[in-house]
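User: Batch of two.

Assistant: Item 1 of 2:
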Amino acid sequence: MLETDAREAAIREHLPIVRKLAKRIHRLVPSMDYEDLVGDGCVGLIRAVDGFDPERGPSLQHYVRRLALGKMLNGIRRMDPVSERSRRELRDAERERFELAAQIERVPTRVEMEALRPGYAAARVEAYAIPPLSLDRRLPEKLEVPLDTEADPARIDERRGDHLALLALVRALPRRQGRVIMLHYYAERSMRDIADAWKITGQRVSQIHVKALRSLKKAAYAAQD
C-alpha cells in the first residue's frame, strides 16, 4: 500500500477518470444522480489505489477505470427491483425464443418456453409483478418522467402493425433467407455465428443476407402499391 501522502495524491490524480465515467453513464441512464455515480466510483477508486500491484501488469489508470466502473454499475443494479439473475434469464429466454422461431417458422408460446426453461416463469413473475406507479401519488425521489410524445396509443398501434407486417414479409422469404433475418436481427446472432452453426462460409451467409434484404425491400414496395 502507498504511503499516506502518495495515496492521497494518487486518488486526487485519478479522480477526473471517475468524473468522466460518471458523466458518460449519467448520459446513458439520466435517472441516476450524477453525484451518486461519482460517490460509487470513488469507492472503486480508493480500492484500486489501495490494492494496486504494479507487478501484475495493468496500469493504475486502467485498474482505477475498471473498479470505478464496476462500482457505478453495481449502484445502478441496486436501483433495479428485479434481480440480475431474472433479467439474465429473460434475455437468454427471448434470444432462444427467436432462434426457435427461425427453426420452426413460428414464435414459440410462453407455455412452450416455460417447458423448455424451468426458470422462465419465475423470472417473468419477478419482472412483471412489480406494482406500477400510481397516478394518485408523488413519484419516488429523484425519479423524473420526461414527456413522451411517442406514447400516443394510435402511434403505438401503428408501430405494432408495422412490426407485424414486417414479420409477415420475413416469413414469406425463402427458408434460408428468412432464417438469416430472424437469427441476425431478432436473435442477435452474428454472421460468423450463423456460418459456424450452418457449417458454411461467412461469405455465403453474407450473400444470403444481401439477397434477403433485397427481397424484403422489393416485397415492401410491392405492398405499398
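Item 2 of 2:
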Amino acid sequence: MSGGVSAAAFRSRFPMLDRRVHLSSCSLGARSVDLDRALLAMAEDMTAGGGAWEAFEEQNAQARRGFAALVGADVGQIALLPSASVGAYQVASTTDWGARPKIVTGSREFPSVAHVWLAQRPRGAEVVFAAHSTDPADLVDERTRLVSVPLVGYRDARRAPVAELAVASHSVGAAVFVDAYQAVGVEPVDVDALGCDFLVAGTMKYLLGLPGLAFLYARAPALADRAPRLTGWFGRRDPFAFDPTVLDFPTTATRFETGTPAVPACYAANAGLGLVGALDLAVVQEHVRALTGSAVAGLERQGETVRAAPPGSRGAHIGLVDADPSALAGRLAARGISVSPRGDVVRVAFHYFNNTDDVLALCEAVAADRRSAPPDRAGTERRSHVHG
C-alpha cells in the first residue's frame, strides 16, 4: 500500500493500460481518468466566458500549492514557468558572474539546461563540465558561483549525491541548482533534505500532466544578484494593477514568472499532483526499484545488454542498449509497448501503476523482436551488445 492507495488501485486510474504497456514515463506520463476530467472541467469553465479567468487563476494557485507541498517548500518559494529551461534561465539571468564566474555542471546534465549555462559565457561565465568519473565537488572552489546537477540522470537514471554536493558547494559560497524532472513523482524529494538553492521540475513525466508547465523552487527568491530580465505581468507585485509604467518585483518566487501560464497544463498538473500527492513516495520508490530490478534480470537472461545504475542509486528507468534505439522503440510500439529512445539506449521507465506483468510483456516483446530480426540487423545488434 502507498499512502492508503494500492498499486492496483492506482493503476485503475489509467484505463489506457488495459490496451498498452506504458514504460515511457521518463518522456511522457500516462493518461489518467483524472487528466481527462480536468480537461473537461476546463472546457466547462470556459462556458463562463470572461468569468473563466477566475477559475483559471485558482488552477494556477492550486498547482503552486500542490508542488510546494510535494517538495517540502513554502508556496512563496515556487514559480510557475513554461519549462525547466526557462527556470534555469531565470536563475542564470539574475546571477552576477563577475567576481565568481564559474559554473560547474556535468555530462549527465540534460542538454537544454546545460545550454542555458553555456549561453552565459558572453556575460562572463566559465562553464566547467565534470566527466562521468569526476566528482563535481572536486571542481568546486572559491571562484564557483553555481553548481548544477540532475537529481536523476535522464540517460542513465543514476541518482546524484545532491545533499553532499550541496554541503561542499555551500562551504565555499556556491549555490546549487537541481534538475529533478526525472525524480519528482516516483521518489521522495525534499528541498530541505537536499539542501539545494534552486530546483526545477515539470509536469509531463512522472507528475502525470501535460507539457507546458514547470516549477522553479528558489530558497531565497529576493536574494538574487539582480532582477529578472525576462519578465511579464505575472512577475509583478500586483499583476492586476495594469500599470505599464511600473516594473516592481515581489519578494516571492513569483518574481521569476512571466506571462499567463499554460492554462490546460495547470488543470492537468492539478490532476497529476492529486494522484501523486495521495501516495507514499517512499513506497512508490521501492515498488519501482523492484520492477527495474526484475526488468534488468529478465532482459539480461535473454542476452541483452542493459545499462542501469546500482539499485541504491537508481532512478525509475533503465537503458536497453541497441544499435538503433529509435527503430527498436517503433517496433516495440507496434507490439503495444511504449518506451523512450535516447542516445544508444531505449529507456524503459516505471511508475507506481506498472507491475510485473508489464516486465514480462517487455521481455517477451524484445525476445520476439530479436527472433524476427533479419540477419544483418541481428548481427549489428549483437555487435552493439559486445561493445555496449
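The chain has two domains: 7-31+280-387, 35-277.
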